[in-house]
Amino acid sequence: MFCTKCGKQIADTTKICPYCGADCSTIHKVVDQANQMFDAAEQELGNAINDVKQSFSQGYNADQSNMDNNNMNNGGQNYNNNYSNGYNNGYNNGYNNGYNNGYNNNYNQTPPFGAQRLKTDRSLGLYIVLSIITCGIYGYYFIYQMAHDINIACEGDGESTPGLVAFILLSIITCGIYAWYWYYKLGNRLAANAARYGVMIQENGTTVLMWCILGMLICGLGQFVAMYILIKNSNLICSAYNRTHGLG
Known about the structure:
This protein has eight helices and no strands. By secondary structure, the protein is mainly alpha-helical. The chain folds into two domains: 1-63, no CATH class; 124-243, no CATH class.
């Protein structure tokens, strides 16, 4: 094996690195890995909280902006009507024909304006850890964010992945059966868009659904396998989307 600190090759049974004195015991490795996972979990939870805060902030600012715009537009409407008729007719005809035609031809190239980089590093471990820490709340945020990203990456395929509200309400009404159907549809959608981005996805919705059903027979573990498949394939699609649009 190799020392995790200095990188020198040492015997597998070595507990203390003879080159740098680092602790190379198995227990130390497990502790390091656990610390890395919890650090990543803490960062992921912080990102989730910031996203929720930003959503509320954007909604509030939009309401304030609409109120201000209504007041401003009412006061300036008469002025704009008189001014625009004389000025815009002469100016816009020459300006738009000359400037916009050349500008838009270059501006509308990929990556498209406003395209956002999709998340590509989702993991089952963080999903489980953060769901436990937040008493299941993070699991719903995870569903919301995954549906959001897949709807962007797979836009134009004629499908639409329902968001968090539909997922919660319909799952309650159907005693959890709708959640399986949601997983099934998402698995099929990811598989159907694989060729579009030139990636290989072997599992489809049927595979995901079978693991959900099998989970009832193996202490519920099958559902984690199903979620792992969805996470892995959504990471593939989102990564391909980012590459296609020059988003890294």
